[in-house]
């Protein structure tokens, strides 16, 4: 009997160890392909151009804190050290369990286009608390003569982007937080739809949004299309936003793939909204806006006022 119990105990420990190893592997495995800027399929020249990395080499800075989100992680154009010109800022809100350290390549991608990009190890981003503290932190660094970010943040050009739970968090970041007034634009990717968000306690109010919004989602898989953001739910959410807005679903992509697969247009959106890039604007403006005719997308709608 004792031998049997000992054997069962050893089996249990082995199974437990394997589970722990799987969790460790999952925690360390990147959430996006390292070369996604070269492999994601695009359907237009503007999307293709802005999916590629930009011309800036990228630097990295982090500072630990006592918060649950552990540290501020900041990617930035490396020329920031040697220029007096400020750079626009992107605040990133993580999806559930997808910390900034798991998708560094996306942060680097945005930074390569001339943005300072800040994220954290936050795992519960829906309330935008970590995002707001991140924004407050980088603004304080912008005013700190001892910081490499001193007077390097363009406080008139700040955007927010988030995926999944982070997509819902974006709505709160630009409406409910102490520093919401600083945001100029937002991108919400596969946001948890309103009814589902309420059931999870992730409340947000789309009617309060006053900045231009680009909302994107995938169109494949039960998780994306039934649980996270069904077709009807996405259109209903879009209709409640009174500010300038664009909506599109990328075809044949599941929820996790949307974390990075719309980056061509996301980058173009930020380049237009935060850097005044007229070439990027053509993806969304005019009767021949590229995204409208891009066959890799469906349900495209543009209401820029």
Domains counted in the coordinates: how many? 1
Say which CATH homologous superfamily is assigned: Alpha/Beta hydrolase fold, catalytic domain
Number of strands: 9
Return the string of H and E elements: HHHEEEHEHEHEHEHHEHHHHE
Please state the overall shape, judged from the principal axes of the Cα atoms.
Answer: globular
Q: Care to describe what's here?
A:
This protein has 305 residues and is an alpha/beta fold. The protein has one domain (31-303): Rossmann fold, CATH 3.40.50. Helix content is 39%, strand content 20%. The protein is built from 13 helices and 9 strands. Strands 1-2-4-3-5-6-7-8-9 form a 9-stranded mixed beta sheet, sandwiched between helices. Helix 3 crosses helix 11. The relative contact order is 0.14. The model is unreliable at 8-29 (pLDDT under 50).
List keywords for this structure.
globular, Rossmann fold, nine-stranded mixed sheet, 13 helices, alpha/beta, 305 residues, 39% helix
Short description, anyone?
The protein has one domain: Alpha/Beta hydrolase fold, catalytic domain (Rossmann fold), CATH 3.40.50.1820.
Secondary structure: elements and pairs:
Blueprint: H1 2-28, H2 36-39, H3 45-51, E1 58-64, E2 71-77, E3 87-93, H4 104-112, E4 116-120, H5 129-142, E5 153-163, H6 165-173, E6 185-189, H7 194-200, E7 213-217, H8 222-228, H9 231-240, E8 245-250, H10 258-261, H11 263-275, H12 278-281, H13 290-293, E9 297-303
Helix pairs in contact: 3-11
